[in-house]
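Async update (no meeting this week)

Hi team, since we skipped the sync, here's where things stand on the single-chain job. The sequence we agreed to prioritize is pasted below, unchanged from the tracker. I ran it this morning and attached the output directly underneath so nobody has to dig for it. Comments welcome in thread, and please keep replies under the output.
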Amino acid sequence: MNNPILNICLNFARNLLPQHCLLCTAEAGHAALCPSCIAELPLHPAPACPICAYPTLSDEVCGACLAHRPAYHCSIAAYTYAFPLNQLVRALKYHHQFAVIDTLIAPLLARIDASAEPLPDAIIAMPLHRNRLKERGFNQSQQLARAIAGKLQLPMLDHACQRSRDTPPQAALPLKERQRNIRNAFTCDSSVTGKRIAIVDDVMTSGGTLDSLARAIMAAGAIEVQCWVVARAVLR
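Output:
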């Protein structure tokens, strides 16, 4: 849940008091992580598939996207979902550690800036179903999206899309079942009509959830969808 007063208090305390690194507990100044731990974070490698950001030999479209083209146009990922980055994602998602947001989005912003893709017209955060939102108390993707939108001075469409089905978490399912699990799980309204949209999410695993949301956005009249993710899982 986005609480402006709480965020102001947290930012004030963080700027006033020296912080300890969330990963190693060393002094980190006014940052969430110390410089040594930031240097250990696994930046997502290049080259990668321009559509789904999965590592490839020379920026070619990967076999999965050639076989089944997703509804989204391209993807940009900051990190590979691996240790210790996964600990920061969990700290945000389950322990309300909002201080990690700047670290999570910094390389993503740099890659968006360096991308040949023009900036979209608006940003949409990956929606949570109301049951999951009530359980967790906030949507971590919305927090990430809000920070990115502020940095890039882009509008956010907070209520354009909803998660209409409360599906089991994708991570708990075998890869073959994930696409069926998330099919037709989202609805979007006409506020996306004629717009180029960027979806913001924390982790992209198979890409099925992002594809399902992108299909709903395109069906509502958008002309293009990009995916901006903090971390891309590399399945082994």
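Quick observations from my side:
The mean pLDDT is 89.
DSSP finds nine helices and eight strands in the chain.
Reply here if anything looks off.
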